[in-house]
């Protein structure tokens, strides 16, 4: 029996246990052995993480797809797991050590520190998995993976070794984004550009052969820079080849101030004649653009800033080698001074010698680490790289050919732009937590890449014996005795970028590189649901790795969802204090209400403006369904064995069958097209408006009346339609629907495994052949009953029933609307005249007179050839229905009221349009503020349109 009150928390806890105990979400269930697989991999959340609104949206949409396809008979694998999140996890544990005043990781040593990280992972690393279960995620939790599991680690090592063997992984000395706080390289994608108010320093560089004088402009060239501290590493000055001011100076040298080193003036299009002085200093070891300029002109690279962001001069061989005689004392003066403190002191020294022409305020973008928030330093260092350009070519072609498609399609442009301009991927990180790079170095620095240390030792000993560095006998002894080779080769201490292992996720989680049957059955996956912010981090890299190692795209569809913002459209952030915690919403309103809210607002390409009131509204929606189900139970509504809704005789019952079929088709087609909001909207309208507001209300006289065949049929149909609702709603609101199914349907089996309402027709031989070819020769015989998406829909229609009940609903709805517009009190009954009614209307009206009078607050319904004078005329399905309102309302007073309301709407429109027409307002106001004004204007325009319609109707009554 259904409890009186809907209590989400009780239901969610109970249903979670039911699903787990029944293994409902296991892939490869015996009953699905012959079913077509449907695979989705979860974007693995960081093991450090907890559920935020982005996770809630992402996993709700994935769950809708998985529950939908599971009910359509597919063998669904929703692969769950977590990411080790190198930097993030290491930061968490290091912070714990500091807060507890325990030894730091370097004091602790690598082995002990990693033991501590694993301990933390075991204690609290599964937090987000438990939170996803609270959301209702129907993953196959028995297959949960972690990116540093033994099997996944084996896949990572194999991929690294093979890519290195093929020349697609290599080591190179290049500039990287260096985080001076975390002491590691980070990728371009982990860098945030932040607007900073700084300065532009105009510095005088003396021209070689001329006597420098600040008053003699011919004795120097002025360069403009935002980073004076890097000038110690300058190896050139660049001017634009078409800049007439400097053409005679190209090829000559200038003397680097303070240092005295000669550096060349080069012509390069990178220099912009319209910015600064038109001349720029070139520091290839400290600027990415300068690095490229230096490469084009053969300029040297002198690094003067160390890993901690301090000047590194005294022990810097390259810097000292390039110093003029007698300049070493300067190196000692600034050695190990922080870069920003050094900037101030260097500028002071330059000013004292007259080398500063002027200083201007300058606002510019400065790169910051997205985790440390420290200013990123371009740093010249040896790192491991992937030849991403080569790997990207097949991945670009796969999207261009349609093997993989983006939804919405506009994201393909973003994907192409990045992939076609992709740079080498720096994959090494100076961390301890992660997959240690499988590379070992010999005594002369030669690198040996291998899957195991034993294999690396074997390669190294063979090489050094061949090079006669050691004898063959020494080689044999070292191979047999680990102690004798101690220190002969050492392993690279760096670990791999977290995204390297994540790139293998669609196949490493299935057991690759082993010849696991799961790889054959579940790869490639069907769909990837993810946010736009990791298209480059993750999506592109999965495409590259999947095509290279599996020779197939990892997924056929990439659905990109938008951001969840606050109700005003602002991006959620802790600093703004507008973060909405999904777990708090689940506690207050239930997981089903949150899920339905996110799905209902997930329009393609449009950010979600989340208001708590919307979640509360959908909690009320769940309550509405709960109460309707209780009403059905209290009236003994149940589906008898063998009941066929298509054979119903009552018009009302045939109408609900018609509407149910229509909604089923709408919901199915919308989910298939990833239009989650349309699917949610269709089922919401059917439940609230069609079933609860109309069908149950119209059925009440029969249900509450004497026993009869009509009552029996109506009881059966009320229950049948309720069950159809539970099926359609289950992917969106799984907890309440599973509970009501268990309590009311009284059938064997879970709703999660019940058949979707839209039954497939029998496939043609051609369709079977097509699917078998796509599945491949190793797949088992496919059951045609379980092949859903490609077949025609079979559904029930009854246009005649829809015409009759639809007329009743439209008539009552329009009368209610007029009464509301005209401020007619509920107690005041009005007459209705059906003017020039058709034969069908004359036949159906008497059958529904009592219902219409009760629901529309009418005193009488009559027929006439034409509408009486002073009546408001309504057009209902092409026929006139008239409400004589003369004497019922004060027409003059009502007109005055409407005119006043129209005036208010006009004022609101004018106010909003004035702001939106102000270019400064649109350019400077926050995005959410501008959007709010647009919404105000649209709301006022809609309000005015309704008021004008009401005013026009009022004229008919005068």
TrEMBL record:
Reactions catalysed: tRNA(Val) + L-valine + ATP = L-valyl-tRNA(Val) + AMP + diphosphate
The entry's keywords: Aminoacyl-tRNA synthetase, ATP-binding, Coiled coil, Cytoplasm, Ligase, Nucleotide-binding, Protein biosynthesis
Chief location: cytoplasm
Motif ('HIGH' region): 45-55
Keyword Nucleotide-binding attributed: yes
EC number(s) stated in the UniProt entry for this protein: 6.1.1.9
Protein residues bound to ATP: 574
Subcellular location: Cytoplasm
Locus of motif 'KMSKS' region: 571-575
Domain Valyl-tRNA synthetase tRNA-binding arm: 890-955
Pfam assignment, any one: Val_tRNA-synt_C
Boundaries of every Methionyl/Valyl/Leucyl/Isoleucyl-tRNA synthetase anticodon-binding domain copy: 653-828
GO function term, MF aspect, one: valine-tRNA ligase activity
Coiled coil: 895-957
Residue span, Aminoacyl-tRNA synthetase class Ia domain: 18-610
Superkingdom as given in the UniProt entry: Bacteria
Top-level EC class: ligase
General function of this protein: Catalyzes the attachment of valine to tRNA(Val). As ValRS can inadvertently accommodate and process structurally similar amino acids such as threonine, to avoid such errors, it has a 'posttransfer' editing activity that hydrolyzes mischarged Thr-tRNA(Val) in a tRNA-dependent manner.
NCBIfam families: PRK05729.1, valS
Domain notes: ValRS has two distinct active sites: one for aminoacylation and one for editing. The misactivated threonine is translocated from the active site to the editing site. The C-terminal coiled-coil domain is crucial for aminoacylation activity.
Family: Belongs to the class-I aminoacyl-tRNA synthetase family. ValS type 1 subfamily.
Subunit structure: Monomer.
Name the record gives this protein: Valine--tRNA ligase
Source species: Bradyrhizobium barranii
């Amino acid at each position: 029996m259904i409890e009186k009150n809907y209590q989400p928390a009780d239901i969610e806890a109970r249903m979670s246990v039911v699903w787990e105990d029944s293994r409902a979400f296991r892939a490869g269930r015996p009953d699905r052995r012959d079913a077509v697989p449907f695979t989705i991999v979860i974007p693995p959340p960081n093991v450090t993480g907890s559920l935020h609104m982005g996770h809630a949206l992402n996993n709700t949409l994935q769950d809708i797809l998985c529950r939908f396809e599971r009910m359509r008979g597919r063998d669904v694998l929703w692969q769950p797991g977590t990411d080790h999140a190198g930097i993030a996890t290491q930061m968490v544990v290091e912070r714990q050590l500091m807060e507890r005043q325990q030894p730091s990781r370097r004091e602790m040593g690598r082995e002990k520190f990693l033991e501590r990280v694993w301990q933390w992972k075991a204690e609290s690393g599964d937090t987000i998995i438990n939170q996803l279960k609270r959301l209702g995620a129907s993953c196959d939790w028995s297959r949960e993976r972690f990116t540093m599991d033994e099997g996944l680690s084996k896949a990572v090592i194999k991929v690294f070794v093979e890519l290195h063997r093929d020349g697609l992984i290599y080591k190179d000395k290049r500039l990287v984004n260096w985080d001076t706080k975390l002491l590691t390289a980070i990728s371009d994608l982990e860098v945030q550009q932040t607007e900073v108010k700084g300065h532009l320093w105009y510095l005088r560089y003396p021209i070689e052969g001329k006597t420098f004088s600040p008053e003699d402009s011919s004795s120097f060239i002025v360069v403009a820079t935002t980073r004076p501290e890097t000038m110690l590493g300058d190896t050139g000055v660049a001017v634009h080849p078409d800049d007439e001011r400097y053409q005679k100076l190209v090829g000559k040298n200038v003397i680097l101030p303070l240092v005295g080193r000669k550096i060349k003036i080069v012509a390069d299009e990178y220099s912009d004649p319209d910015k600064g002085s038109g001349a720029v200093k070139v520091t290839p070891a400290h600027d990415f653009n300068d690095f490229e300029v230096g490469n084009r002109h053969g300029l040297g690279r002198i690094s003067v800033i160390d890993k901690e962001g301090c000047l590194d001069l005294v022990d810097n061989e390259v810097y000292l080698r390039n110093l003029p005689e007698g300049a070493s004392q300067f190196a000692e003066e600034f050695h190990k001074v922080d870069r920003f403190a050094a900037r101030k002191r260097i500028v002071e020294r330059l000013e004292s010698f007259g080398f500063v022409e002027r200083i201007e305020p300058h606002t510019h973008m400065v790169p910051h680490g997205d985790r440390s928030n420290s200013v990123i330093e371009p740093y010249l260092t040896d790192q491991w790289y992937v030849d991403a350009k080569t790997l990207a070519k097949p991945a670009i072609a796969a999207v261009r050919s349609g093997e993989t498609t983006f939804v919405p399609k506009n994201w393909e442009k973003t994907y192409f732009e990045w992939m076609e301009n992709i740079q080498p991927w720096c994959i090494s990180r100076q961390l301890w937590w992660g997959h240690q790079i499988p590379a070992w170095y010999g005594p002369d620095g030669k690198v040996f890449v291998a899957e195991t240390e034993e294999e690396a030792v074997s390669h190294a000993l063979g090489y050094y014996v061949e090079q006669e560095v050691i004898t063959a006998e020494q080689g044999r002894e070292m191979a047999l005795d680990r102690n004798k080779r101690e220190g002969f080769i050492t392993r690279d201490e760096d670990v791999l970028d977290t995204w390297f292992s994540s790139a293998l996720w669609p196949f490493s989680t299935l057991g690759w590189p082993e010849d696991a049957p799961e790889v054959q059955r579940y790869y490639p996956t069907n769909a990837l649901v993810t946010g736009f912010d990791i298209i480059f981090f993750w999506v592109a890299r999965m495409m590259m790795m999947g095509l290279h190692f599996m020779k197939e795209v990892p997924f056929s569809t990439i659905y990109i969802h938008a951001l969840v913002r606050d109700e005003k459209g602002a991006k959620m952030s802790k600093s703004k204090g507008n973060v909405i915690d999904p777990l708090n919403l689940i506690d207050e309103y239930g997981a089903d209400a949150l899920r339905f809210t996110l799905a209902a607002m997930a329009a393609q390409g449009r950010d979600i403006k989340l208001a708590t009131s919307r979640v509360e509204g959908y909690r009320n929606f769940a309550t509405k369904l709960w109460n309707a189900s209780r009403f059905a139970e209290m009236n003994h509504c149940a589906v008898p064995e063998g009941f066929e809704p298509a054979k119903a005789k009552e018009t009302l019952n045939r109408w609900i069958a018609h509407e149910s079929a229509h909604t089923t088709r709408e919901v199915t087609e919308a989910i298939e097209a990833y239009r989650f909001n349309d699917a949610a909207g269709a089922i919401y309208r059917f439940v609230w408006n069609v079933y609860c507001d109309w069908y149950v209300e119209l059925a009440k006289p029969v249900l509450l009346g004497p026993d009869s065949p009509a009552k029996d049929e109506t009881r059966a149909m009320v229950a049948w339609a309720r069950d159809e609702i539970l099926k359609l709603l289950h992917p969106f609101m799984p907890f309440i629907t599973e509970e009501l199914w268990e309590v009311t349907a009284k059938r064997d089996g879970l709703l999660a495994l019940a058949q979707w309402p839209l039954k497939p027709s029998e496939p043609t031989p051609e369709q079977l052949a097509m699917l078998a070819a796509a599945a491949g020769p190793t797949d088992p015989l496919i059951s045609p009953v379980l092949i859903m998406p490609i077949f025609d829909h079979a559904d029930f229609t009854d246009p005649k029933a829809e015409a009759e009940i639809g007329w009743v609903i439209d008539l009552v709805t329009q009368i209610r609307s007029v009464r509301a517009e005209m401020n007619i009190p509920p107690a005041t009954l009005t007459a209705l005249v059906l003017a020039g009614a058709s034969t069908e209307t004359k036949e159906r009206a008497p059958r529904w007179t009592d219902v219409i009078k009760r629901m529309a607050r009418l005193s009488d319904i009559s027929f006439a050839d034409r509408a009486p004078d002073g009546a408001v005329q309504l057009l209902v399905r092409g026929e006139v229905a008239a409400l004589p309102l003369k004497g019922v309302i004060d027409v003059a007073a009502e007109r005055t009221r409407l005119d006043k309301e129209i005036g208010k709407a006009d004022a609101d429109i004018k106010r909003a349009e004035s702001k939106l027409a102000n270019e400064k307002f649109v350019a400077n106001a926050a995005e959410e503020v501008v959007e709010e004004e647009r919404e105000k204007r649209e709301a006022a325009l809609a309000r005015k349109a309704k008021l004008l319609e009401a005013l026009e109707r009022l004229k008919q009554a005068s």
